[in-house]
């Protein structure tokens, strides 16, 4: 093996994770409750981007733990709570949502993340919309 190839391989393994483009990204979520008169459009941040990963051709030869893929996920997050306007008294008018402070490439934690990509997901309001800037 040539020294250039070995150095390139070592550099890629060492700094490959830092070259990934996983960072907090602006995102708008739409929140509504059936009982309430309005829908909120909330400006927040989520973790999004590209993470370096490996896909082995010998999947049947490797352990399942060696096949897990890295995803762009929360490193630090905080929760914010908003009041949905136009709710009757018997309804809880609050909605809490996560805000990404920093992100990392790592295993998806199902305790606080949805690790499955849904094919059909709507992110729009069916009621009159109010904008919530946080």
UniProtKB/TrEMBL annotation:
<dbReference type="GO" id="GO:0005615">
    <property type="term" value="C:extracellular space"/>
</dbReference>
<dbReference type="GO" id="GO:0005179">
    <property type="term" value="F:hormone activity"/>
</dbReference>
<dbReference type="InterPro" id="IPR018245">
    <property type="entry name" value="Gonadotropin_bsu_CS"/>
</dbReference>
<dbReference type="Pfam" id="PF00007">
    <property type="entry name" value="Cys_knot"/>
</dbReference>
<keyword id="KW-0732">Signal</keyword>
<dbReference type="InterPro" id="IPR001545">
    <property type="entry name" value="Gonadotropin_bsu"/>
</dbReference>
<keyword id="KW-1015">Disulfide bond</keyword>
<protein>
    <recommendedName>
        <fullName>Thyrotropin subunit beta</fullName>
    </recommendedName>
</protein>
<feature type="signal peptide">
    <location>
        <begin position="1"/>
        <end position="16"/>
    </location>
</feature>
<comment type="subunit">
    <text>Heterodimer of a common alpha chain and a unique beta chain which confers biological specificity to thyrotropin, lutropin, follitropin and gonadotropin.</text>
</comment>
<feature type="domain" description="Glycoprotein hormone subunit beta">
    <location>
        <begin position="21"/>
        <end position="125"/>
    </location>
</feature>
<dbReference type="GO" id="GO:0005737">
    <property type="term" value="C:cytoplasm"/>
</dbReference>
<dbReference type="GO" id="GO:0007186">
    <property type="term" value="P:G protein-coupled receptor signaling pathway"/>
</dbReference>
<comment type="similarity">
    <text>Belongs to the glycoprotein hormones subunit beta family.</text>
</comment>
<keyword id="KW-0372">Hormone</keyword>
<dbReference type="InterPro" id="IPR029034">
    <property type="entry name" value="Cystine-knot_cytokine"/>
</dbReference>
<keyword id="KW-0325">Glycoprotein</keyword>
<keyword id="KW-0964">Secreted</keyword>
<dbReference type="InterPro" id="IPR006208">
    <property type="entry name" value="Glyco_hormone_CN"/>
</dbReference>
